[in-house]
Hydrogenase small subunit (Paenibacillus mesotrionivorans), 264 residues
Amino acid sequence: VESAKRVPVIWLQMQDCTGCSESFIRTTHPKLESVLFDMISLEYSEVLSAASGHQVEEARRKVIEEYAGEYVLAVEGSVPKNAEYLMVGGVPAKDVLLETAAKAKLILAYGSCSSWGGIAAAGPNPTGAMPITDIIKDKPVIRVPGCPPIAEVMTGVIAHVLTFGTVPELDAQGRPKAFYRHRIHDKCNRRAYFDSGLFVESFDDEGLKQGYCLYKVGCKGPTTYNSCAEMRWNGGVSYPIQSGNPCIGCSENAFWDMGPFTTR
Ligand code: SF4
Ligand code: SF4
Ligand code: F3S
């Protein structure tokens, strides 16, 4: 990748919390400086671009024309059905997305918001939040869900795209199999306790101190596909279950509505 031409990337933010950008910039393998200075040319980012306002919107349009069919579009956040809920530079964000997607080589849906609708789509979904795949139908979209996704998963997917120039092998839901083929439950460090019937019953009990399985306190690991139990977070240090928290299924569709944040 290092010797190849840096690929232009436009990173749009729709209805988001910037957590996916925050995760991305903490990548350790590869390091962020290697991603930004050797692999990609980040042409537009609400968080990282020095320019703002009309200047940066003009730069985005220039990239669309000069690198038509070559640039990668990364999208963080969901799209509101009601256009007035999200405007960028005086234009509905949905139109900015469609304009930028039209000439992109391929599109990365970074995070559960752009992949599934995410937090903004949680009931009663006041903005009519949609995943980007609801409005982009004519381009390959790679879903990289998680709230946020693991940094090294985000950079791993883009590294594949840049190295091979192709969409990686995807599962039935459009996620790269390399990172989403296993359930958390299958690789969990507490799995032996599940198999032995040893469970945490409440968050202050002896079972928690012993590191027992978190299934009875709401763990969604058995139905969640992600790399947390294998790759872990913060450069491989830990992940929610290892730290004593049940998996909340943050990479799965509609996870906000399946608890533990809601009683619906
Ligand atoms: Fe934030 Fe999660 Fe949405 Fe990413 S997926 S923008 S971390 S709410
Ligand atoms: Fe499965 Fe969760 Fe128990 Fe781990 S803590 S074994 S993922 S139910
Ligand atoms: Fe999310 Fe579960 Fe991993 S909550 S961070 S998928 S352990």
The chain has a mean pLDDT of 94.
